[in-house]
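Fresh eyes needed here. I'd like your take on this protein's tokenised backbone:
***
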Amino acid sequence: MNKHLGFWIAHFNILAVCMVLLGAFGVQFGEQEVPCPLCMLQRMAMMLCALGSCYIILQARSGSLTRTDFAAGYGMSILAAVCGACISTRQILIHIVPPDPGYGDPVLGLHLYTWALVVFLVVLIDSGLNLMFVPELVTDHPIEFNWVSKAVIGILGAVILANLLSVFCQEGFHWVLPDDPVRYELFYDLGLFKSP
């Protein structure tokens, strides 16, 4: 087995979460569906899941990874996934009683908050498996923190910044996000658009 496999699995985990978050942006801007506060909390939990793997990659800058590094990184991912799964489950239960159509249009038959629960369950399984196989995934051989690692961390940073900007545009100069948002408040606060 490749002794650097655990290091590369962490890269894959980050890219997978980033693809999910970029897909959410596709729905947000392509379908003109403004995310609700629970949706934004689920996105934040996904970013925190990715930060667990990011921690593992950043620890490799010293040239090695220890079992403690893996345990800490995947421990962070598990905690974030449990929180995210609770938030997703809450939103599913809010919209589960017929005739409630749910929030937003379904994607491949499921609403985004249901897909979010699937993502969090996958993160839990992935993190658990990585922790189970730590002896096989951790190596004493030097690990090179190279341009691939920097690029993956850069992509995650860009996705985090894009989500922060999205929330700021959505919230504007108000303290909380509206429960059922229909517009980006910042543009109305700045007078770029007139309220109806």
